Amino acid sequence: MKLLTRNTDYAIRAVCYIAGNKKELISAKELVGALKIPRPFLRKILQRLNKSGIVRSYKGLGGGFKLALPVNKIFLTDIIEAFQGPFVLNECSFRKALCPNKKICPLKKRIDKIEGYVTAQLKSITISELLKG
Questions:
Q1: I need a labelling partner for 60 at 20 to 30 A (CA). Which of 27, 71, 113, 114 fits?
Q2: Which CATH number fits domain 6-132: 1.10.4100.10, 1.10.3720.10, 1.20.1250.20, 1.10.10.10?
Q3: Please, which residues have CB within 8 angstroms of residue 44's CB and are 6 or more apart in sequence?
Q4: Can you give the pTM of this predicted structure?
């Protein structure tokens, strides 16, 4: 199980780069060069971030990307959910179907507690905090 997919990891890097830059707009070309992410792959990531309201895109000569929100209002979970959906540690599936013991499973109760803790921790992390290190 991966906590963050490759898309989410690249998205976090892109948002942090945009946030940490003093320029008004950051071009896709600059992001590709700085982050070493293939251009077609990065374009899809930026489109999803734009659609999710995390960044804004501006087309044309001198266009680029900037954050749609202040860095202290963009939470790690916003980016995770944009690429992975709601954070879930265990879907309780058995042979591609919901486990029939889901309601009585003692492990499920423990995993739910862990999931709640991890979710709360992730929801407390902002891009501002990531930029501070």
A1: 71
A2: 1.10.10.10
A3: 7
A4: 0.85
